Amino acid sequence: MREVKLHVETLDRFIGETMAMAERLDRSKRERQAAHIAFESMETFLKVLTPNRWALLRALRGHGSSSIRALAQTLGRDYRGVHADVAVLVDAGLIERDDSGAISVPWSQVTAEMALDVAASA
Fold first, then answer.
1. What is the pLDDT of residues 93-121, one digit of tens each?
2. Long-range contacts of 14-21 (CB under 8 A, 24+ apart)
3. What is the pTM of this model?
4. Contacts of 47 (CB under 8 A, 6+ apart)
5. The domain containing residue 106 runs over which residues?
6. CB–CB of 8/41 below 8 Å?
7. For 35, which of 4, 20, 87, 119 could close a Cys bridge (C-beta 3.0–4.6 Å)?
């Protein structure tokens, strides 16, 4: 199962976590972890992951690889709006595009983690 964890993380914490991971790798302690996508603030998180985009991710994950036009028809939305949402989600790393232009969700599980203290300080 490929899992990605979404969360809000300050730059200082990101740097600290990256340094700790580098130290573990230097000691040859490989750990299998879920992929992480961090957002700099709760505002950014909510701007990227709107209700329509969550619905898009669920539909695309359920139907598998698709064209944007077919996904728009599945969702009952206009092509331009779905195309714009797909572009944001590709940039965020939540959707992948293959060589033929088809899009898919590479994750079998997407987990959003919210910590009030980090979200408030970010």
1. 999 999 999 999 998 888 888 777 655 55
2. 14/38
3. 0.76
4. none
5. 3-121
6. yes
7. 4
Whichever domain contains 60, its CATH number is 1.10.10.10
Q: How many Å apart are CA 104 and CA 86, to the nearest integer?
A: 10
Q: Look at strands 109-113 and 3-8 and give their pairing.
A: parallel
CB atoms within 10 A of CB 94: 24
Cβ–Cβ under 8 Å, residues 103 and 95? yes
- Which contacts (CB < 8 Å, 24+ apart) does range 62-67 have? 64/104, 65/98, 65/102, 65/103, 65/104, 66/102, 66/103, 66/104, 67/101, 67/102, 67/103
Beta carbons within 10 angstroms of residue 30's beta carbon: 8
Q: How many domains does the chain have?
A: 1
> What DSSP element (H or E) covers 37?
strand 35-39
Which residues, in sequence order, are bridge partners of residue 38?
A: 7
14: tokens are 């990101």
Q: What is the per-residue pLDDT for 19?
A: 66
